[in-house]
Each structure stands twice: as structure tokens, then as C-alpha cells.
Amino acid sequence: MMIKLLTVIGARPQIIKAAALSRAIRNSFTDRLQEIILHTGQHYDRNMSQVFFDELEIPHPDFNLNVGSGAHGQQTALMIKGIEEHICKVKPQFIILYGDTNSTLAGAVAASKAGVDVVHIEAGLRSFNKRMPEEVNRIVCDHVSTLLFTPTIAGYQNLLREGFSDNNSQPFNIDNPGLFHCGDIMYDNSLYFTTLAEKKSDILKKHNLQPQEFVLVTIHRDLNTDNPIRLTAIFETLNKLAYSYKIDFILPLHPRTAKMINELLAKELIAQITKNRYIKIIQPVSFLEMIMLEKAARMIITDSGGVQKEAYFFKKPSIILRPETEWIEIVENKVGILANADPEKIENAFLNFMKSGNLDFPPLFGDGKAAEFICNLLIETYQFKIKSNS
Q1: Rounded to the nearest 5 degrees, what angle is found at the Cα of 174, between the Cα atoms of 155 and 109?
Q2: Which residue in 39, 86, 220, 254 is the catalytic one?
Q3: What does the angle CA 245 – CA 248 – CA 254 come to, to the nearest 5 degrees?
Q4: Which CATH class is domain 191-355?
């Protein structure tokens, strides 16, 4: 019995997450699970996509829609059309979706309309801010899914509050979904790739960085990049902190952020940042390079949900440049501070972590075997479905 999985990916985080499931299938389930990968082309820059397939040894996609960037409606519509066409060709038993991008939303809509069981990995996450496109995407996907895998207890509880039942039993379907707290698939990856990163990456040497003597910064959300007031506040504060504390700040710059810096920041501020010898703006980095930077940093400043988690995996405090976070456990454990784009909050959080001694990082994200758990549930669910239909 071979079960066909159509995995939909489109953005950098999804490519990385897919590595864990692909690796589990390759190592233990090739006799029962066949994975077919569809890349929507939502991120088409080679540095943001192709390099990850090569570096993480992910199978190259069987299909690529080459959708590219665009307005949300246009991009999502093109992806729905393309995914639907490939569902008809492949005839999968499950469609695997990750996270909360437009690719996730498109896959959920196309599969649910075609009667294919949706599997949502990273289900139940909520920012409780529906102005975020990602929040709408994840809610819609959850509510048309057959199997929902939550990385944290908080995610599981969010689903229960929205009316999902934890009493459902096999056979699962769109009206009788199965909920599972399996741990975080990215924790699987972080454990697996850390050793590889130490062997392969020379990024610390390349940029003359000493462990525990620099701050890693990532900024990419349109909440920050497209708002001149927020973007200015963030960069003015980074500039001030770097000078005041004489500590290196390294920024692997997302293409979106690089573009908006030139368009939205005052020339005087750009000049100050450029002249600040403690601020090092570099090109986007590979996943293994990012692991090395996260592992060696003293602290991390970010608006990325994924980087918040990775900071936690490597026991690094994080300053979160958003008004809310899906990973509330990080904040509740006082190793992450929500600073938004408020200079005073950013500075206070920075000072707090510079003075902090030993911080506590309890194991919130599972045992590093989420992918194996998911594969076993896929097989079990399909077996029950076959029995119930016979």
C-alpha cells in the first residue's frame, strides 16, 4: 500500500520545514509513503529558495508553478488554479501544508474543494490579529483540515477554544478532524542540522564575529518594512544601541527590507547606519549559516516567528519587533520580550537581557521526533479510511 502525499511549499520557512518530513520518509517510510513536492514559486529568488533544496538535501520539487510575487488576491488565485490542476494529475491521498503563507491558503482551498484530506503542520497558532494576512491564512487552513498537528500546547488549546473537539476518533475527515500535539517540526531540523552547520559554515570567521559578542537582527514583515515610522524607529534604535554598547549587530538583510530601507528611510539615517562600524548589513544567509549565527549570538532581535523559536531552541533571549506573537510560551517564560517598534521598549528589553544571568529554557517544543509522529498518523488515518469504505 503506497500513500501519495502532495507537499505544497512556497516560502523559505516551508522549504526548511519540509526537510524534516522528507527526511523521515526517506529514512523510515519509503515503502508506505510517496512524497510529491509542488513549489508554488511564491519566493523565486535563488538565495531565498533554490539554495535551501541544495543545502538541506531536500528532493527538488516535482512541479513548480512559478507564480512569483504579486498582490495577495492575484497570487493566491494563480496558486489555487495551479494546485488544483496538479491535484487532478497526482491524485494524492493527503495534501501537506505548512504554516500560514498564501501557498498554505491556496493549498487548503484547492484540496478541500477537490475532496482531498488536508494535513496542516503548525496548526493552532494564533496572533489574535486578523489584520495580519498570515492569521487569516492559518485560520482558514485549520478549519478545512482533516489532520491538525500543533507544535505547542497553546496551539492545541487555541483549537479547542475555536470549537474543535479532542474527542474525535478515527476515521478522521474534514468534518471529524484529528487534533494532535506532536511538537515542533523545526526542532527536529535544528537538532539534525546543528552538527552539519558547525562543519560546513564559516560565516562567523567570514564576518569576524566572536561567539556571545554580537546581536543577530532579522526584519522582514511588511508590518515593519512598509511603514516608514516603524522602520525609522527600529533602525534609529539599533544604531543607538550599537554605538552605546559597542557590540556588533549583524543583519542578514531580506530583499524586501533592503528595498524599503532605500525608499523609506531618511538619507541622513542611512548614512549614520552605513558609517556605524558596529552594524554589519550582509546578504541573506543560508539555513546552515543562520543556525550558526543564532547559536553564537548573545541575543536575537527579530520580527520572524521562526527565528523566535530557533532562538529558544539555542537558548538565546529574543526581542520581538511585533505587538504580539504566536509563540506566547517564549514570552511567558521571560526569554522573549514583545517590544513592537517602540524605541523605549526595545532599549529596555536590550538592557534587561544584557544584564540577565542564567535564563530558563524548559523543553516546550517536543522531543525532536515530530516528523516520525506525523508519518505514522498519516498511515494510520489512511488505513482507517480504507477500512471504513470497504
Answers
A1: 85
A2: 220
A3: 125
A4: alpha beta
Helices (H), the chain: 12-28, 50-55, 72-90, 102-114, 133-142, 153-161, 185-200, 203-206, 222-225, 228-245, 255-264, 267-275, 287-296, 305-313, 328-332, 343-355, 370-389
- The amino acid that residue 211 corresponds to is P
Indicate the domain borders of the chain. 3-184+366-389, 191-355
Distance CA 284, CA 300 (A): 16
**DSSP state for residue 173 in the 8-state scheme:** B
CATH topology of domain 3-184+366-389: Rossmann fold (3.40.50)
Element (H, E) at 35: strand 33-39
- Is 220 known to be catalytic? yes
Tell me if 41 sits within 8 A of 14, measured CB to CB. no
If phi > 0 it is left, if psi is from -120 to 50 it is alpha, else beta; for residue 251 that is beta
- Fold identical between 3-184+366-389 and 191-355? yes
Predicted TM-score of the model (pTM): 0.85
Q: How far apart are CA 298 and CA 216, in angstroms?
A: 8
Per-residue confidence in pLDDT tens, the chain, 390 aa: 799 999 999 987 888 899 999 999 999 999 999 999 999 988 655 544 566 667 777 788 999 999 988 888 999 999 999 999 999 999 999 999 999 999 999 999 999 999 999 999 999 999 999 998 999 999 999 999 999 999 999 999 999 999 999 999 999 999 999 999 999 999 999 999 998 898 889 999 999 999 999 999 999 999 999 999 999 999 999 999 999 999 999 999 988 899 999 999 999 999 999 999 999 999 999 889 999 999 999 999 999 988 999 999 999 999 999 999 989 999 999 999 999 999 999 999 999 999 987 899 999 999 999 999 999 999 999 999 999 887
